[in-house]
Amino acid sequence: MDEGDRKQLVLVKDETAAAASSNRTRLTRLSLIGEKARPAGACIVLIHSHDRSHLGRKWALGWEEAVTIGRGTGATIVVDETSVSRLHVRIEPRGRDHALVDLRSTNGTFLNDRLVSEQTLRGGDRFKVGPAIFKYFAGGDVEAQYHEEIYTLMVTDALTQASTKRFLLETLEREIVRAHRHGRPLSLVMFDIDHFKKINDTHSHLAGDEVLRELGAMIRAQVRAEECFARYGGEEFALVLPEATREGAATVAEKFRTAVERHRFSFDGAVIPVTISLGVAELGPEMKTPQQLMKAADEKLYESKRSGRNRVSS
Length: 314
Known about the structure:
This protein is an alpha+beta fold and 314 residues long. Helices cover 32% and strands 29% of the residues. The protein has 8 helices and 20 strands. The chain has helices at residues 17-22, 33-37, 142-154, 165-182, 196-203, 205-220, 246-262, 290-306; strands at 9-12, 26-29, 43-48, 58-60, 67-70, 77-78, 89-94, 97-102, 109-111, 114-116, 118-120, 126-129, 132-137, 186-193, 228-233, 236-242, 265-267, 270-272, 276-282, 312-313. The strands form 5 sheets. Strands 4-3-13-12-9-10 form a 6-stranded antiparallel β-sheet, with helices on one face. It has a 5-stranded mixed β-sheet with strand order 6-5-7-8-11, with no helix packed on it. The model is unreliable at 1-23 and 25-36 (pLDDT under 50).
């Protein structure tokens, strides 16, 4: 059998009385050998930090690339503390496990309160990088699922079910680094509801909430898995589009604008006309932070509003 074929059929002789009487051989299909050897879902969770806004954040650990933690912007996970080295520690895949490797940091790496230079991680291990403490979860860990649920609640807007501003910024930080590193396009769409205050004043705040809820459901249904749709604040939203040029993002924005304009929003029997204004910006070589890209998209958004609203500016 070809070694590249991971799926194997194993003949297992059933030794139970029932099988003996029927004289049958049972066929058991094994799952992929690679998947069996490497449990999915391994991750680390930040459980202590001076910056409490990031508590509960989770990072998935894959089986192809290592994850680095340090103070420098080149690290996968940045811990901006003076006691943390620029590249402090690395978590790398080894067989079916992950190993914690100190990168000759100034203040050392502590695993379960013990100074280590290199150690295989086990489910439930805690390691300290400066003042930050991370917890390692092996694949399939129930506690990891609990932390995942808590984190999901923390980064999901309760009203619209869009991602929160916090998650938006995290996504932009990651995608900006990736786009610059690989020379790939990245675009951002910012939009808000036109004359939203008038909707609240005319139809009530409950009606305004219903518009936000329904608009969120509309957009989420059309957003791809690799994209990020977030509520930035109030009636303003953002859409992160990896691999999209400004022209491509403008096409997506126009599709959403048209869909919202044609949609029939209603509350308590009253039809509520709703339109949105959108601004599109593509990541430039000089843009290194989420705030720079957001500012560019926001300027285009206000250009749409100054030009009469219910339009896309790019």
